[in-house]
Amino acid sequence: MSATILMWSVTIAHVLLAVAMVCQAIRFIRGPRAQDRVMAFDAFYISSMLLLLTFGIRTGTTLYFEAALVISLIGFVSTVALAKFLMRGEVIE
Amino acid sequence: MTHLAELPAWAQLVASFFILVGAVVTLIGAVGLLTLRDFYDRIHAPTLGSTWGTGGILLASIIIFSTLQSRPVLHEVLIAVFVTVTMPVVLMLLGRAALYRDRTEGVETVPPMEAVSGLAEDAPETDGK
Prior knowledge:
The complex is a heterodimer of chains A (93) and B (129).
Chain A: H1 2-30, H2 34-59, H3 63-88
Helix pairs in contact in A: 1-2, 2-3
Chain B: H1 2-5, H2 9-35, H3 39-42, H4 46-69, H5 76-104
């Protein structure tokens, strides 16, 4: 019984996170300026990391956890590089 | 999905609560990112997903894997610490970049550099560039 509750809540979490990613993708497309797109990109990274973590809970393997860790690392580095580019016009000075 | 059925009932209920809290809070942040009007309003919305969104799902993951393997599984704390440390850095860099771009373009809604010059001496120069 309660295993069904857990399965359903993982499925609902998949759907909610996918809707959140759709919202962030719409903001990414609509803009209106570059900093809005970079912020939507960063939020998109966080949501995809959470989606991978829920996949890991569903399948019971730690493989998804490592992918989520790598995604959060890459998201941080790329967002910092993009923010630096918006500020200065170049990434490495 | 046999591994989830092996969990005790309290762990399943607590884990499903935390999963749902994390997903709902992340969705609220994403809707705020989509519907708020100004960039400086919208920059607050994604922090929901990176605080309690991440925290809830990581707590559920810790509870499930610790109960399944009968030992504390704490490698999720890595992601939690990393996201908690990096999110303010990202948002401050992004907010300052946006403020700099708005000031150099002469947008009326942001405060000019003279009004805050006593507070922001390390801010980038608006003139002479």
